[in-house]
Design goal:
With 253 residues, the chain is an alpha/beta fold. It contains eleven helices and eight strands. It is elongated. The structure holds nicotinamide-adenine-dinucleotide. Nicotinamide-adenine-dinucleotide (NAD) binds next to loops.
Length: 253
């Protein structure tokens, strides 16, 4: 953990609200903490129940899926079911409401795969790490894969060649979708203010977007705990997404 700079520590909510009011273009980079108050565990939270003996980093890789497809499929199925049962929180709602009041002024860039920004009504969300709610072919689909629905199973598979369906998320060690990353980099370059909400700042290239934005724009960390991005921030607001975002983005800003 890094110490936040003394200057950043003295910035208040009122100051940052002024920055929101003055910013022509805002980018909001969110991480797992954005959805914590909806009941979606972050990766830093302990895994529970049957999954307690696995680390997410050992499940969220192509090698893990190829070695144990049923185990990894079941873990994602559990997470997909969990996300289906929860709702966007006041933070997601405040972001979406701001975007509806100020079209094209705020771009959401998220590391989350839970679809909660989209369900709250945020338009044009740049989902850097894909979606938990969708799946795709593990290997490049052959004509047989596309000619009939996959066979049900854990995971589903092509009846002819055995190609597997996999979650449409970006696993550790995989490239981010090129077009989404390019759009996120453009939003980070164009913004006057970047709000970095609920991310530990250890996963790259996502964390790099906040570091590069800090060179040309104001960068504000919103997190109840210390993060790796605090040292680069112009302000650090210690609090949760659902508590602080409505205050930062409320009507009169
Ligand atoms: P992380 O688990 O590394 O860090 C979460 C951060 O959120 C921590 O810094 C924590 O202090 C902060 N936090 C906790 N509660 C908060 C709250 N109520 N409000 C604001 N901040 C809060 O998450 P990460 O940085 O996003 O990186 C982990 C990776 O895991 C990402 O690649 C992401 O795709 C994936 N992931 C996604 C989800 C999801 O889609 N909801 C959940 C878990 C992990």
């Amino acid at each position: 953990m890094k110490e936040q700079s003394p200057a950043a520590a003295h910035m208040t909510l009122a100051t940052v609200r002024g920055w929101v009011r003055d910013a022509g273009r805002i980018a909001l980079l969110s991480g797992a903490g954005m959805s914590a108050e909806s009941g979606v565990p972050t990766f830093r939270d302990a895994q529970t129940g049957l999954w307690a003996r696995f680390r997410p980093e050992e499940l969220a890789t192509e090698d893990a899926f190829r070695a144990n497809p049923a185990t990894v499929w079941d873990w994602y199925a559990m997470r997909r079911d969990m996300v289906a049962k929860v709702a966007p929180n006041a933070g997601h709602a405040a972001v979406a409401a701001f975007q509806q009041r100020h079209p094209n002024r705020l771009t959401v860039i998220t590391q989350n795969v839970d679809g909660l920004h989209q369900r709250a009504g945020s338009p044009g969300v740049l989902a850097l790490h894909g979606s938990l709610l969708e799946d795709k072919w593990l290997d490049a689909p052959r004509p047989c894969c596309l000619s009939q629905p996959p066979l049900e199973g854990r995971p589903p598979r092509c009846a002819v060649c055995g190609n597997l369906r996999r979650p449409a998320v970006v696993w550790f060690g995989e490239m981010l979708p090129v077009d989404v990353l390019a759009a996120a980099e453009a939003a980070a370059r164009a913004c006057d203010l970047m709000l970095v909400v609920g991310t530990s700042g250890v996963v790259y290239p996502a964390a790099g977007l906040a570091r590069s934005a800090a060179a040309t724009a104001r960068m504000v960390v919103v997190n109840p705990d210390a993060s790796d991005l605090d040292d680069a921030a112009h302000a650090v607001l210690r609090g949760t997404a659902a508590a602080l975002l409505p205050q930062l983005l409320q009507e009169d800003t």
